[in-house]
Design brief:
Layout (H helix, E strand, L loop, with lengths): L1 E13 L8 H4 L2 E18 L5 E5 L4 E5 L12 H14 L7 E7 L9 H17 L5 H15 L7 H8 L2 E7 L3 E6 L4 H10 E5 L6 H13 L5 H21 L3 H16 L8 H12 L4 E4 L7 E5 L5 H7 L6 E3 L9 E4 L1
Parallel strand pairs: 3-5
Antiparallel strand pairs: 1-2, 1-12, 2-5, 2-6, 3-4, 6-7, 8-10, 8-11, 9-10
Helix pairs in contact: 2-3, 2-4, 3-4, 3-5, 4-5, 7-8, 8-9
Length: about 350
């Protein structure tokens, strides 16, 4: 028997960063994001030699060892090991599982589309199918968050795990004591089609410094005095609330304006969000007619989300063809994680 699973990646439209502790614990955070037709995948099967084998096709790394109920989190396929350790301890009475777990994604790692968290959700989904675990959507998302942020001690927020698990266009609220409320938005199909025609992803090919960015945001919230970075965080939260209303009203122009405002606020949260190379790319896009843009995820590199006039798409792509990046077109995806037996 083999188990397959997949979970969708997401684009952040507004509020990104307000889902990171301690801001969301103290002030409450809210994020508006949408899943797209790009995925993280997992394949799980029992091994014939009784060993454990973890494989990441994206980075071409394999870990194999004799059967154990716990593997050291040492930087080699950290996520695969951490999910295995938690599943065995929490759901299999501490009994080791002789399994081969293979993962891959549709985009490069560190893309800013929630790739790492989505991989964790996909792996958990496969284990849930294999062991027939009674885990609902909130359970899967919270478990993925705990594994990443607690077991692996990786910096980051909370939105990615919930987006990948639930799927769709969601307004997600975060407060203290790890309380999360996912509010699915019923957006007109014509509005989604128009947004798809106006939005394009551009992979910058640049490495990201998300940990430094998140640390800067944490320091801003932890500061005893008011700071411009903290003010920017409140501006991001406000933009998410306005974006929700604009989406529900199909107000495309307001959505584009809010993306502009959010990008200005985002830059103010950390000096690491942009760099000279990113600024050069932004200048090129602005000079050839891009209406609004933002770096996806924490920033520092990865994917850039562009808003354009559909008629200008090919001209814009042609005008920056000398750059090293790559354009990706996408569609919104309403379904969240899923798994199946073969």
């Amino acid at each position: 028997m083999k188990i397959r699973s997949k979970a969708p990646l997401r684009i952040g439209l507004a509020g990104g960063g307000t889902d990171v502790s301690p801001f969301c614990d103290i002030h409450g955070g809210c994020v508006l994001n949408a899943t797209i037709n790009m995925f993280a995948y997992c394949s799980l099967e029992e091994t014939v030699n009784g060993q454990v084998e973890f494989i990441s096709k994206d980075i071409d790394v394999t870990f194999s060892d004799k059967l154990s109920a716990n593997y050291t989190i040492d930087g080699v396929l950290t996520l695969h090991k951490a999910v295995y350790n938690r599943i065995v301890a929490q759901f299999n009475n501490g009994e080791a599982l002789p399994l081969k777990v293979t993962t891959w994604t549709d985009v490069p790692m560190g893309s800013g589309l929630g790739t790492s968290s989505t991989i964790v959700v996909a792996i958990i989904s496969a284990y849930r199918e294999y062991l027939n675990l009674p885990l609902g959507e909130y359970d899967v998302a919270q478990l993925a968050y705990d594994i990443e942020r607690i077991d692996c001690n990786l910096s980051g927020g909370k939105q990615d795990q919930y987006a990948a698990t639930f799927g769709g266009v969601n307004f997600i609220e975060f407060s203290d004591s790890n309380k999360v409320i996912v509010n699915p938005l019923r957006i007109k199909q014509s509005t989604l089609y128009e947004l798809e025609s106006r939005m394009v992803l551009y992979y910058t090919g640049l490495s990201r410094e998300s940990a430094k960015i998140i640390d800067d945001q944490v320091k801003a919230v932890s500061s005893t005095s008011s700071s411009s970075s903290l003010d920017a965080m409140f501006a991001l939260k406000s933009a998410a609330l306005k974006m929700k209303e604009a989406l529900l009203k199909s107000d495309i122009e307001s959505i584009i304006e809010l993306v502009r405002e959010s990008w200005i606020a985002k830059i103010a949260t950390s000096s690491s969000i942009t760099n000279p190379r990113i600024n050069d790319i932004i200048s090129r896009f602005e000079s050839c007619g891009v209406q609004a843009l933002k770096l996806s995820g924490a920033g520092g590199g990865g994917f850039m989300l562009l808003f354009i006039e559909p008629e200008d798409r090919f001209d814009i792509e042609k005008s920056v063809s000398d750059l090293d990046g790559k354009f990706f077109r996408f569609q919104f995806k309403n379904e969240g994680e899923c798994s199946w037996k073969i």
